[in-house]
């Protein structure tokens, strides 16, 4: 299995894989930085030709970065190379029987409520709370300790900052960044950054 990425996020991901006994024939991929071994043990692949060769043995890959755009890029490139996305589920998760989140990574100690829907390639990071009937689009990042209360909707390619709180029924558009610690009380349109308590727009994306 290949982890797509070999930075800080991959460090935390590796601990989950070790705790679940999933490190046999484990490789990491980093085509930019001059490293050949990750954590002094795991080989680092450098080219897509190497990735394709490993996929003949095991087609599974994990998204080893938190950045929404980079996650989507890796997903597209690795899928084209013959890979199959493998989604990680950490330990200590309070997980409803009525949640629909098979294609999302969910790290340790999260709460995932009833009738929640989380899109392909999204990341629910350590200690985040996703309450009842929340909908999250594809390749979005919910950072550690963030709280999404009932019936919140988050679009595609969003980043919800650490310890941010999104109040019930608030709708967040696509390509939105919510600053760490913010409290979002009103709907947020596509492509903006909001910050504060209550959160206000501070930047509009060029995307």
UniProtKB/TrEMBL annotation:
InterPro entries: AcTrfase_PglD-like, Hexapep, Hexapep_transf_CS, PglD_N, Trans_hexapeptide_repeat, Trimer_LpxA-like_sf. Keywords: Acyltransferase, Repeat, Transferase. Belongs to the transferase hexapeptide repeat family. The keyword Transferase applies. This is Sugar O-acyltransferase, sialic acid O-acetyltransferase NeuD family. Substrate binds at residue 66. It holds the Pfam family Hexapep. Residues 2-77 form the PglD N-terminal domain. It comes from Algoriphagus alkaliphilus. The keyword tRNA-binding does not apply. Gene3D superfamilies: 3.40.50.20, Hexapeptide repeat proteins. The active site is at residue 132. The record marks 133 as: Increases basicity of active site His. One of its GO terms (molecular function) is acyltransferase activity.
């Amino acid at each position: 299995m290949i982890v797509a990425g070999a930075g800080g996020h991959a460090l935390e991901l590796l601990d989950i894989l070790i705790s679940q006994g999933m490190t046999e024939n484990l490789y990491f991929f980093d085509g930019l930085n001059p490293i050949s071994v990750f954590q002094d043990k795991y080989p680092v692949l450098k080219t897509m030709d190497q990735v394709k060769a490993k996929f003949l043995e095991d087609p599974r890959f994990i998204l080893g970065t938190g950045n929404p755009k980079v996650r989507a890029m890796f997903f597209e490139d690795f899928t084209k190379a013959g890979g199959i996305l493998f989604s990680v589920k950490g330990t200590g998760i309070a997980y409803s029987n009525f949640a629909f989140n098979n294609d999302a990574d969910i790290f340790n100690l999260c709460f995932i409520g009833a009738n929640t829907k989380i899109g392909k390639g999204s990341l629910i990071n350590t200690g985040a709370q996703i309450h009842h009937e929340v909908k999250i689009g594809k390749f979005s990042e919910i950072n550690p300790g963030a709280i999404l209360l009932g019936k919140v909707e988050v679009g595609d390619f969003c980043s919800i900052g650490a310890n941010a709180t999104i109040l019930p029924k608030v709708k967040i558009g696509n390509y939105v960044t919510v600053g760490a610690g913010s409290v979002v009380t009103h709907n947020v349109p596509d492509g903006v950054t909001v910050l504060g308590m209550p959160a206000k727009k501070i930047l509009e994306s060029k995307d």
